[in-house]
What we know:
The structure holds two protein chains of two kinds.
Chain A (H helix, E strand, L loop, with lengths): L2 H6 L1 H5 L5 H13 L1 H20 L5 H17 L10 H6 L7 H24 L15 H5 L2 E8 L5 E7 L1 E5 L6 H13 L3 H11 L5 H13 L3 H11 L6 H13 L3 H11 L9 H13 L5 H12 L8
Antiparallel strand pairs in A: 1-2
Helix pairs in contact in A: 9-10, 10-12, 11-12, 11-13, 12-14, 13-14, 14-16, 15-16
Chain B lengths: L1 E5 L17 H9 L3 H23 L2 H18 L9 H22 L6 E4 L2 E4 L13 H20 L2 H12 L4 H8 L3 H19 L4
Antiparallel strand pairs in B: 2-3
Helix pairs in contact in B: 1-2, 2-3, 2-4, 3-4, 4-7, 5-8, 6-8, 7-8
Amino acid sequence: MNCHAVQTELSAYLYGELDFASEEALETHLADCAFCQLALAREKAWHTTLNSEYRDVPLDLLSTARQNLRSSLTGESAPKPARASWRNWVGTFGFSPTRWSLQVAAASFLVFVGFAGARLIDSNSLPGASEANGTLAASVLGSSSRVRDIQSNGPNGVRLIVEQIREQEVNGSVEDGAIRQLLLNASRESNDPGIRVDSVEILNSQNGSDVRDALLYSIRHDANAAVRLKALEGLSRFPADRNTRDALKFVLQHDANPGVRSAAIDLLAPSGRTGITPDLANTLVEIMRGSPDDDYVHARCFEVLRTLNTSLDAY
Amino acid sequence: VLVASQANVIGHVGVQSAPERSTEVDLIRAAQRGDAGAFEQLVRSYDHNVLRMAFNLLRSEEDARDIYQEVFLRVYRNLPKFRFDCSFHTWLYRIVANLCLDQLRKRKVRKEEPASFEIGTGEVDRFQFVPEQRADVDPQRQLMSAEVNTRIQQVLGELTPRERVVFEMRHYQGMRLRAIGESLGVTEEAAKNCLFRATQKMRAALGDFV
């Protein structure tokens, strides 16, 4: 592979789209060619630049789009399962069914069903599932069901544990215990960040240690920055709580999102307020040492420490 | 109004967590039988990415919302005809890609490549969306970042609709070229050539800045 060929394939290489042989050839060339190494570095740089420009959708846009879709689907008639046209299939044999032949076919089918049914009932070979004892209800088959456990039950029998997911609409006050519990669960467990944001937003208006704990969980563990920011808003009501302050310090030190870190420092050290403990000041100094000079969090730490007339040397 | 998806365990809300989620095939089959809950779960598995792709391709909240609506309405209407000849992902992105391509082509015809971004509250300059990591601390860096961003927007606007869509699917959505080819109804090689043209243009435009 020469330099031109390598540089032509650099993007495909970064995207992992080269076959094994091409990738091997390219890497062999790269190992010995400083010029192509430089080209690769530049290629990586513009890829990274492009990534920094990419924007996620605003959550309210996603929420609106979902609502609109739900409204539109309400007006839609339920889609009918597609059926293969059996007349077309029959037609492939050069046979065109007439009214008379259809009647003969239907009668033959009914006779067959009668015989087959009688044989089945006589031999008592129906599976052990019974409507009467409620182990298998027709409704189980109709919705999203998942078999969780299977046990053999006699020669032809089987016992299934079926997990069924069903939707239910719940209306009521957010102060209601059951609804509050649903919201608390949703804030932690839902896979949908939109639902987690909405849950946290509603919980933010509620008091109680369970709410505070849920918010603390969100700022430490939620993968979505918007949810963590929303939870931080709610925690502004518990500024003196020790657990809250510990969690905020954790966020300040470990959260990958600069916006979340900025919100955490604003909560820990609100402008014009005193109450910065030596412990917190130590944390701020550590963060200053660890973050780049032009980082917003670095600047805020510096500002807070300067307000306290604290010098780095003092710590 | 709270809509709670309940498993047997009371209090389990929303979409099932990943390990407990029914397989996609189960969901599709249930949705084909008319199970609205399964359809909604299916939508939620993909809709964020679909909306993000439309939003970044079309740079308009309104257009992205329209595409989202049209995509999932088409999925809803045609799901009973889905026969698993390809993956659901490919089938879905075929619809998304075609709708976005149509919209981009219409814009090309109208020579419409706005220098501003349209959001719910009105139009704003794209410069406002430059990531503001250290904006207040380093104005020089902010200016540079804005310049790079403008250049990126320019060159993205200069790509042909197909190059734009292929680039979006590969670079931002992380789709493999084979899947992109299937979604666009072209060969993997054609998708690769298209991506190659797009990356050449991006490299030429951004080379001075990186």
